[in-house]
Specification:
globular
């Protein structure tokens, strides 16, 4: 394998986009010819190695007034033209619709195509239209990369049999994060403010924590997502007169310096693809409490009671209880943090790249 192409919607700030950017940079550094074919360009994107060829395969200006079906077929056509012109040894698609487009486009070129499932299949791959496309297209896949066993189990054996489970890579800066000698009495969290991450439940849990430990504060780092979650959080804080102990910190470019200041890290999602924020917190050596959310991301890296705590989805009482246990038992918190940091050994950028490289070489 000498030439590899990735396909996804864009390289805007997001989990799949971060993984693709990281992998593409690693492959380029190793001497592979690397293409990234995207539907559009975002204003805020990850930095790419100068040797990577970025190609637009999305709709063009003259396509704006065309119908929905025509636009869908054009997206496939433009991706097919890219494959015919550049002839990569393997095409790797990331995310839901990109998987379908890639498998449709590769038929005429016979390009080995690896798809990647990045979200909870339940609710995302089980609509009637998905069932039709999966039955029609997924047998064409040369392979599939999942993030968890639960994701993998959702699909038919033919897809499971030639698949791999590979974690997201962790940036080395999180593993190198420096912990201050004197901790702030705080519970910390960092993630985009969006409904499925259920920071509202985290706030409910912390109100219970604050009743037992009134000297502790909650700091939530992360930008809004324009779905109203930020406004709901602001209202909950105001309604509970919690302005002095619950803080929305906004986006932070030096999260590796801020998170280790806290004593406990809490994660509250209802579901995830794979929670990068949780991986980062563990790599930083934080004692973590997380919901055991589908499709099993936290369960993949947290051994309950050994390197963190898992609690049921939506259970504010359980989340509050485990946070309090870590606040009250400093030895346990220290032990959890030390064990949590070991996740970096299996999910550092080099280890993840090597797993991808070996799998793709095997496919080709």
């Amino acid at each position: 394998m000498k030439k590899i192409a990735f396909h996804l919607n864009s390289l805007g700030q997001g989990g799949a986009e971060r993984v693709v950017s990281n992998l593409a940079n690693q492959f380029a550094k190793a001497g592979y010819e690397v293409y990234i074919a995207t539907e559009w360009f975002d204003d805020n994107e990850f930095t790419l190695d100068s040797r990577i060829k970025r190609v637009h395969v999305g709709l063009r200006d003259e396509d704006d007034r065309k119908g929905r079906v025509t636009k869908f077929l054009l997206r496939v056509k433009y991706l097919r033209e890219f494959l015919e012109e550049n002839r990569p040894d393997v095409l790797v698609a990331f995310a839901h619709r990109a998987n379908y487009r890639a498998l449709m486009a590769q038929k005429s070129t016979n390009t080995p195509t690896v798809i990647s499932v990045r979200i909870n299949p339940v609710g995302n791959y089980d609509a009637f239209s998905d069932k039709i496309q999966i039955k029609w297209l997924f047998p064409r896949a040369a392979g599939c990369v999942f993030q968890t066993e639960e994701q993998k189990a959702f699909f038919k054996p033919y897809l499971q049999d030639n698949s791999r489970i590979i974690l997201n890579p962790i940036n080395a800066k999180y593993h190198r994060a420096v912990h201050p000698e004197i901790k702030e009495k705080s519970v910390v969290h960092h993630a985009r403010l969006v409904d499925f991450k259920n920071q509202l439940m985290l706030c409910d849990a912390f109100l219970k924590v604050h009743e037992k430990h009134p000297d502790y504060v909650l700091r939530i780092y992360g930008g809004g997502s324009e779905d109203g979650t930020k406004e709901k959080l602001e209202k909950k804080i105001a309604d509970n007169h919690a302005e002095d102990f619950m803080f929305l910190m906004g986006p932070c470019n030096h999260i590796d310096a801020e998170i280790p200041k806290g004593e406990v890290y809490a994660y509250s999602s209802d579901y995830e693809g794979f929670p990068n924020s949780l991986l980062e917190a563990m790599a930083m050596g934080m004692p973590v409490v997380s919901t055991d959310c589908p499709p099993g991301g936290p369960r993949t890296v947290i051994r309950d009671g050994e390197n963190g705590f898992l609690v049921p989805v939506g259970d504010a009482d359980a989340l509050a209880d485990r946070i309090c246990r870590l606040i009250e038992d400093k030895d346990m918190a220290k032990r959890f943090g030390q064990e949590a940091a070991k996740v970096y050994d299996i999910a550092n950028a080099e280890a993840v790249y090597e797993q991808w490289r070996e799998y793709l070489e095997e496919i080709v």
